[in-house]
């Protein structure tokens, strides 16, 4: 694995983690809204 490939992979990994955290935050927000609504 070259340095460039490793950099690209690290960037992709960080993007994936950011996306996952956004999705989780969104789910929790939806759950909270649902709880308050009912």
UniProtKB/TrEMBL annotation:
<protein>
    <submittedName>
        <fullName>Uncharacterized protein</fullName>
    </submittedName>
</protein>
<keyword id="KW-0812">Transmembrane</keyword>
<feature type="transmembrane region" description="Helical">
    <location>
        <begin position="18"/>
        <end position="37"/>
    </location>
</feature>
<keyword id="KW-1133">Transmembrane helix</keyword>
<keyword id="KW-0472">Membrane</keyword>
